[in-house]
UniProtKB/TrEMBL annotation:
<keyword id="KW-0326">Glycosidase</keyword>
<dbReference type="GO" id="GO:0005993">
    <property type="term" value="P:trehalose catabolic process"/>
</dbReference>
<dbReference type="InterPro" id="IPR001661">
    <property type="entry name" value="Glyco_hydro_37"/>
</dbReference>
<keyword id="KW-0175">Coiled coil</keyword>
<keyword id="KW-0732">Signal</keyword>
<dbReference type="InterPro" id="IPR018232">
    <property type="entry name" value="Glyco_hydro_37_CS"/>
</dbReference>
<dbReference type="InterPro" id="IPR008928">
    <property type="entry name" value="6-hairpin_glycosidase_sf"/>
</dbReference>
<dbReference type="InterPro" id="IPR012341">
    <property type="entry name" value="6hp_glycosidase-like_sf"/>
</dbReference>
<comment type="similarity">
    <text>Belongs to the glycosyl hydrolase 37 family.</text>
</comment>
<feature type="compositionally biased region" description="Polar residues">
    <location>
        <begin position="651"/>
        <end position="663"/>
    </location>
</feature>
<protein>
    <recommendedName>
        <fullName>Trehalase</fullName>
        <ecNumber>3.2.1.28</ecNumber>
    </recommendedName>
</protein>
<feature type="signal peptide">
    <location>
        <begin position="1"/>
        <end position="19"/>
    </location>
</feature>
<keyword id="KW-0378">Hydrolase</keyword>
<dbReference type="GO" id="GO:0004555">
    <property type="term" value="F:alpha,alpha-trehalase activity"/>
</dbReference>
<feature type="region of interest" description="Disordered">
    <location>
        <begin position="647"/>
        <end position="668"/>
    </location>
</feature>
<feature type="coiled-coil region">
    <location>
        <begin position="242"/>
        <end position="269"/>
    </location>
</feature>
<dbReference type="Pfam" id="PF01204">
    <property type="entry name" value="Trehalase"/>
</dbReference>
Length: 703
């Protein structure tokens, strides 16, 4: 049954986009550099043919695989295949070709146990609630299986990999994100420092600094197909976290020139002028699709035959990925909930959070330079900080609304929709406490928040109030956004804002804790649905991911800050919205059996392969066994749901806002994961898993 369904999902998709030949580009696009030089992983006929064939559920799967032989030999062999099939190989032939010439994704890594990880971390002593203390220890333990070290063969034979060689071990986000990522690492480093793992943090920072030294920027992530785009510029704040925790001034002295080099990149490559004020934007100049989302990008724009429009789309979609918010209604040309990804106009938007981050960088750099006795450089960065603070206030602050807003430079107007990012200046402190009318900014912002209706949800604050299919919109809450909002409100010093900050931290912690305890196996997720308590978020280009680096770091920081007050006990007054109750009934036995199979298979797999960096045939066999068992478990759980779930909640249609219809069901989860029946009263969760065909289509064609 599962194999049958997998066949239709993986191999039965009939795209209207031809996979023959190469991608057709405009003349202007041909003048731009490719995403990277590799004709295997970044551009060209081979990549186009493989990705458009739809061999994998996730386009990233292919570009993360390792070559068995040199790329020239693979391309020559591919040319023979194309010539022998009249340029039209079947999916079976392409699948066989991949199996013959590539190893599974994850082949870049070797075993690594962090030497600075120790049991019984001291931060647990400050947590009053026993359940949260046990949970905090589990988050601390997660660093041991989220750690990765790149094999030396990547350095010796870089042509065989899409992975950039980095000499020091690092912590990954988790799931499909097998490599180091830029802005995720700020919150990962927060958590690592709480765990006392200074050496691991130092190594991660040295990796980022090496990237700045060699390619001129910190890329989106540690793959060659990311090298033309960055992410929110948080390297300087990461260094500040490390130096403050370790006192390692020598590290700062040795690397300050590379921090300056990254600042130069943003100033030279991403700066625009608006009415005499300099601000920065996300802007990636590439002439084709993102390799890791190749098929998705082409399908989003193929309806438009205008090659220039296609080029604009490719640049805007890559810039959207550079934002870290991939994707959101923030980047639509008019912020319209009815718009789709083909209307992304990221390069026109001057974002509040990005400009706040760069101002923060300048402020920290000024203090760094002063600390090192470099007074002239300190003044330069102090002046840049003052300039950016003035620009943010002049262009992005709306005094009538009492908030900052992204500015659309093409249409010369604010996007006045609610986004958590609107309030980033509170987090970095780049604002004057009083408005031009001498009103308190904290009071104005609190009034704005209350009027926005963004505070009414039990699981945290939604990323936006826009009901779209994108993951950085309603109803998802994201860990870094919750952290910046909570800490920003707390930093104002306003008593009302500080109490709201704690309340939001409590909601977020409880949401994360419930999802952790109600999932089998216990899991942390990259994002959560804030309209309920205890369920992960959905939407976007890929399934919800487990791990999860920045989620763990944010919760750990909240546990440190509010450990004496946070509780794992449900507060009914906070839960304004709740999902409909479900009864297990006839399906109880099947649910339990599905839970047992999913848990047993996953724990066996984790024990056998602590991480995904084992190589060889046994790796593929174990994955196949796990996928098969997980699929069976998923079928059993869904059977239980069909018999037992009573969903009386009205679901919003695309385009509805939460005011008209508050509950949206989360996207289905990986087949081995399910949510138990709740044990704390009226809010009981059962895995909402209908898309069995999607869950049974495993990502690897080796099966």
């Amino acid at each position: 049954m599962c194999a049958f369904l997998s066949f239709f999902v993986v191999f039965g998709f009939a795209t209207t986009v031809s996979c023959r030949g190469d991608l057709v580009l405009s003349e202007r696009a041909k003048q731009l550099p490719p995403v990277c030089a590799s004709e295997i992983y970044c551009h060209g006929t081979f990549l186009h043919t493989i990705q458009m064939a739809g061999l994998f559920r996730d386009s990233k799967t292919f570009v993360d695989k390792k070559l068995k032989i040199n790329p020239e030999e693979v391309l020559a062999s591919f040319e023979v295949l194309m010539n022998s099939t009249d340029q039209n190989p079947s999916r079976d032939q392409l699948a066989a070709f991949i199996n013959l010439h590539f190893e599974p994704e994850g082949s870049e890594f070797e075993e690594w146990d962090p030497i600075d990880w120790h049991s019984n971390p001291s931060f647990l002593d400050g947590i009053r609630d026993t359940n949260l203390k046990i949970w905090g220890n589990s988050l601390h333990e997660a660093w041991t299986w989220l750690g990765r070290k790149i094999r030396d063969d990547v350095r010796i034979n870089p042509q065989l990999y899409s992975m950039m060689y980095l000499p020091n071990p690092f912590i990954i986000p988790g799931g499909r994100f097998r490599e180091t990522y830029y802005w995720d690492s700020y919150w990962i480093i927060k958590g690592l420092l709480i765990s006392g793992m200074h050496e691991t943090v130092k190594g991660m920072l040295l990796n980022f600094l090496l990237m700045v030294d060699t390619i001129g920027l910190v890329p989106n992530g540690g793959r060659i197909y990311y090298e033309k785009r960055s992410q929110p510029p948080l390297l300087t704040p990461m260094v500040e976290l490390y130096v403050n925790a370790s006192g390692d001034i020598e590290f700062l002295k040795q690397n300050i020139h590379l921090l300056e080099k990254e600042m130069d990149f943003w100033l030279q490559e991403r700066t625009v002028n608006v009415d005499g004020h300099r601000l920065i934007r996300y802007d990636v100049k590439v002439g084709g699709p993102r390799p890791e989302s190749y098929k998705e990008d082409i399908e989003a724009i193929h309806h438009n035959p205008d090659l220039e429009a296609q080029l604009d789309f490719y640049m805007n979609i890559a810039a959207g990925a550079e934002t870290g918010w991939d994707f959101s209604s923030r980047w639509y040309w008019n912020g319209d909930i009815q718009t789709n990804l083909s209307h992304v106009r990221t390069r026109d938007i001057l974002p509040v959070d990005l400009n706040s981050f760069i101002a923060w960088d300048f402020d920290i750099m000024s203090r760094f330079e002063k600390q090192l006795g470099r007074d002239n450089a300190s003044v330069v960065y102090s002046d840049l900080y003052s300039e950016w603070k003035t620009s943010i206030n002049a262009i992005l602050w709306d005094d009538e609304a009492g908030s900052w807003f992204d500015y659309d430079s093409a249409h010369r107007r604010w996007n006045t929709n609610f986004y958590v990012s609107n309030l980033t200046p509170l987090f970095v402190g780049c604002y004057d406490p009083k408005t031009v009318h001498h009103e308190d900014v904290a009071t104005r912002v609190l009034d704005y928040l209350e009027k926005s209706n963004a505070l009414k949800f039990p699981g945290g604050v939604p990323t936006s109030l826009m009901q779209t299919s994108q993951q950085w919109d309603f109803p998802n809450g994201w860990p870094p956004l919750q952290h910046m909002l909570v800490m920003g409100l707390d930093k104002t010093g306003d008593p009302r804002a500080k109490e709201l900050a704690f309340d939001l931290a409590q909601r977020w912690v409880f949401n994360n804790y419930e999802a952790f305890t109600q999932s089998l196996p216990n899991a942390m997720f990259e994002k959560y649905d804030v309209t309920v308590v205890g369920l992960p978020g959905g939407g976007g280009e890929y399934d919800v991911q487990l791990g999860f680096g920045w989620t763990n770091g944010v919760v750990m920081d909240f546990l440190v800050k509010y450990g004496e007050r946070l509780t794992s006990v449900r507060d009914a007054k906070q839960l304004i919205w709740s999902p409909s109750s479900v009864s297990v009934g006839v399906g109880a036995g099947a649910t339990f059996l599905g839970a047992w199979i999913g848990l047993a298979s996953t724990r066996f797999y984790r024990q056998l392969f602590k991480s995904d960096h084992k190589m060889g045939g046994i790796h593929g066999v174990a994955e196949a066994i796990q996928g098969l068992i997980a699929c069976v478990g998923s079928l059993l759980v869904a059977t239980a749901a069909l018999f037992s779930e009573k969903d009386t909640t009205k679901r919003p249609t695309s385009g509805q806002t939460p005011q008209s219809s508050p509950i949206r069901r989360t996207k289905s989860l990986p087949g081995f994961l399910l949510f138990q029946r709740g044990s704390k009263g009226d809010e009981e969760h059962l895995l909402r898993n209908r898309a069995i065909s999607e869950e049974c289509s495993y990502s690897s064609i080796e099966e």
